Amino acid sequence: MIETQxxxxxxxxxxxxxxxxxxxxxxxxxxxxxxxxAGKSTSMKMIAGFLAPTSxxxxxxxxxxxxxxxxxxxxxxxxxxxxxxxxEMTPVEFLRFVGDxxxxxxxxxxxxxxxxxxxxxxxxxxxxxxxxxxKGFKRRVGLAQAILHDPQVLILDEPTDGLDPNQKHxxxxxxRSMARDKIIVISTHILEEVHAVCTRAVIIAQGKLLADAxxxxxxxRSRYHGAVSLTCENPAVLREGLQRLPGxxxxxxxxxxxxxxxxxxxxxxLFETVSDFLRAQKVDFSELQWEQGRLDxxxxxxxxxxxxxxxxxx
Length: 314
Ligand SMILES: Nc1ncnc2c1ncn2[C@@H]1O[C@H](COP(=O)(O)OP(=O)(O)OP(=O)(O)O)[C@@H](O)[C@H]1O
Fold this sequence. Notes:
This is ABC transporter ATP-binding protein. It comes from Pseudomarimonas salicorniae. The chain is of the alpha/beta class. It has eleven helices and 14 strands. The protein has two domains: 2-219, 3-Layer(aba) Sandwich (Rossmann fold), CATH 3.40.50.300; 228-290, Alpha-Beta Plaits, CATH 3.30.70. Helix content is 36%, strand content 26%. The two termini are 31 Å apart. Adenosine-5'-triphosphate binds next to strand 2 and helix 1.
């Protein structure tokens, strides 16, 4: 279990992280979402024991990261932002060094290095100085060191940053495959990643935790949740008829692609009503869809309103 209680970080009068409390259980992948400067990396650094909180506590597998730093660090694998490492070393030298620091014996270290090199497809760059690697390979070396000792807890700050689409896919698969028996926290700006790997997400803005929910619960907060959208030849002609149907709150036509969206009143289920109407009107339509909700819209809703309301953080 990871458990933070009123975790705070202040720099002078500026509050970077403001009383954040949450728990993460084994088997969960918690996504940390938030705009630039929200406090995600600062929170992760405090949980990983790399930055002392101004106040509040963080416990990892029962170990307080301040009071029992070695025990806590032993169970944590941490990928910091930017994946810093020793640039003059090759990946294999760096991984041997990390294995040594982690106290792995020679045989176990070799076995683990083989495993992580295979998982992160590092074979082709093993003998090349890390400084000369591309951003994506540097990131993969960073991930390799984080998982080398097969830790119970993984704290990964933007693990797919800088990776190409194929690698993003691979790394998301890797995170999912490790999720079953580990506790994983990842930060990301990519909302599709939340769907791809996270079982739960917290949204942070201006240092405050503003939401803690499953991706589906977050989507249910979207005005698009339960909306029905479709493409047809002449959407403007249909608008008035659709607007009069029971349960319909609004009908909108996208200015760019002409797609028509019918929004429900609270609690109304529209799919059948809309499809019956279209058939009765003999409308030639395509791509009739029930919408789950849009995370990007919910993210904007949650992260922009408080910013405007509360003004600057202090
Ligand atoms: N050492 C420091 N001194 C002063 N302010 C700092 C320091 N480190 C971080 N901050 C500020 O704390 C705030 C939170 O930073 P943090 O890096 O945690 O944000 P983030 O959510 O990870 O952002 P991003 O998505 O851009 O990586 C930012 O406004 C940052 O400028």
